[in-house]
Design goal:
This protein has one helix and five strands. It has 80 residues and is α+β, with helices and mostly antiparallel strands. Strands 3-2-1-4-5 form a five-stranded antiparallel sheet, covered by helices on one side. The longest helix has 21 residues.
Length: 80
């Protein structure tokens, strides 16, 4: 299974973007996208921004991912 994460671009330099997901910053290549700008939301998979999306879609996707993670954690509590 593959998972692409919605992220916001905070900086662009030489076809590389600094992306932010809930305060966690990483680098992603912009080689597969045209006209990406700082402030855009993108879907990132395997280190590449692969599609631009609107902010509402990004926030809804992140909310669903958080809910799924919380449900998994609740179903699989850590052993002491």
């Amino acid at each position: 299974m593959c998972l692409a994460i919605p992220s916001r671009i905070t900086k662009i330099e030489n076809q590389m973007a600094v992306i932010d997901v809930d305060g966690v910053r990483r680098e992603a290549s912009l080689l597969l996208l045209e006209d990406a700008c700082v402030g855009d939301y993108v879907i990132v998979h395997a280190g590449f921004a692969i599609q631009k999306i609107d902010e509402q879609t990004a926030e809804e996707s992140l909310r669903l991912l958080r809910e799924a993670a919380e449900a998994f954690d609740a179903a699989h509590p850590e052993e002491p």
